[in-house]
Design brief:
single chain, two-stranded antiparallel sheet, alpha/beta
Length: about 230
C-alpha cells in the first residue's frame, strides 16, 4: 500500500513522526504536512494565493497552507497513486463536535471528497498532560492493522481517538461508536481587556456509548463519519 500522511500540528510534530514510522511498516509513505501549527483551522482551503511546497526530507514536504490544502496538493500533485490518506496523530482529542473545527479531521474529509479513503487519528490528553508518543506505537499499529483491511464505505471515513492510557495498563479495546453531537459549554473570562477561553474539555456533556463517552472511559473510540459528519 501507499499512504499520504498529513496533520494540523505541523510536519515536525511527534505524533506525525510516530505515524510515519508505523505507516512505513504497512507500505510506502509520502508526507505533505503544514510547515507550522494549523490546529483548529477546520476545513479551510487556500484559493487566494500560491502555496509553497518545500522538500524537507526524502518523500516529505512542508506546505504553507492548511491540512486540507496539504491533502489537495498531495493527491493532485505529489502522490496521486496513494491508497489511503492518514492524518495525525493529533496532540489532543477530536471527539464529538470537535470534528467540525479540526484540521486533522478536515484533511481526511477532503481526501474522501477527492475519492481516497482515509483515517483521522487523535490522542486525547488532559489539560496538563503530555503524551509519551513511543508508548503509543502498539496502539497505533493495532488500529491500522484492523482498519486497513477494509476501507470505509464510499462517502465516509474513519475518525479514531485514543484515550489517556499507561503502558502498564491492559490494551484498550477498539469500540465502534457514534459521534456525540452534544454542545460544548463554552465559557470566557475577561482579563486585561481580552477574552480568554475557559471551557473545560473533560466536563463536556456526553451521551453514553458515543465517542466522547467511550474515549473518556479509557477505550479507543472508532467512529465512521460521512459527508454530513
Amino acid at each position: 500500500m501507499k499512504f499520504l500522511l498529513t496533520n494540523d500540528d505541523g510536519i515536525e510534530a511527534p505524533g506525525l513522526r510516530l505515524l510515519t514510522q508505523i505507516a512505513r511498516e504497512f507500505g510506502e509513505v509520502v508526507v505533505v504536512a503544514p510547515d507550522g501549527v494549523r490546529s483548529g483551522c477546520g476545513h479551510q482551503v487556500t484559493n487566494d494565493r500560491p502555496l509553497a511546497l518545500n522538500n524537507v526530507r526524502p518523500g516529505e514536504f512542508a506546505c504553507d497552507g492548511t491540512p486540507a490544502d496539504c491533502t489537495r496538493l498531495g493527491l493532485k500533485q505529489v502522490a496521486s497513486d496513494v491508497d489511503w490518506v492518514l492524518s495525525g496523530v493529533n496532540d489532543g482529542g477530536n471527539l464529538g463536535i470537535d470534528v467540525y473545527m479540526s484540521g486533522t479531521v478536515a484533511a481526511v474529509r477532503e481526501a474522501m471528497l477527492l475519492g481516497t479513503p482515509g483515517i483521522a487519528l487523535s490522542q486525547y490528553v488532559g489539560r496538563k498532560d503530555s503524551v509519551d508518543w513511543p508508548s503509543r506505537a502498539n496502539l497505533l499499529r493495532t488500529v491500522l492493522t484492523q482498519l486497513l483491511q477494509a476501507p470505509p464505505p464510499i462517502e465516509s471515513f474513519w475518525n479514531v481517538n485514543f484515550p489517556i492510557w499507561e503502558p502498564s495498563d491492559p490494551h484498550p479495546p477498539i469500540v465502534e461508536c457514534r459521534l456525540d453531537l452534544n454542545r460544548h459549554d463554552v465559557r470566557f473570562e475577561s482579563l486585561d481587556n481580552r477574552w480568554h477561553y475557559r471551557g473545560i474539555y473533560r466536563d463536556r456533556p456526553r451521551t453514553g456509548g458515543h465517542d466522547v463517552d467511550v474515549c473518556f472511559a479509557g477505550q479507543i473510540a472508532l467512529t465512521k463519519l460521512t459527508i454530513g459528519g
